[in-house]
Amino acid sequence: MPLSNRSTDPDAPATVIRTAGDSERGSASLEFILVGLLMLVPLVYLVVTLGLVQGQSLGVEAGARHLARAVSTATDAADADARAERVLASIADEYGMDPSSIEVAIDCRPAGASCPHAGAMLHVTIAARIALPLAPPVLGLERFASIPVEASAVQKVSRLWGGS
Question: Can you give the pTM of this predicted structure?
Answer without folding.
Answer: 0.70
